[in-house]
Design a protein that fits this description.
alpha+beta, single chain, globular, 5 strands, 1 helix, 5-stranded antiparallel sheet, about 70 residues
Amino acid sequence: MKSFLFTTDNDRGGVILCDLDTLEEAVVYLQNRFAGVVRVEQGRDYWTPEEGFTALPAADPDPDSAG
């Protein structure tokens, strides 16, 4: 089981716990199930209509070590 966060264009959304394996599968499922899905997230990975499938950059564990 995996969980995915989603948001719709009317500021609704939620969390879905399901047997889907990938973010791509979750996007298709959620778009078919709910109108106006504008963002789906799993961990650092996410999808939006504007950006497509992408991920947040990794956090720097020690910002003082940049150099």
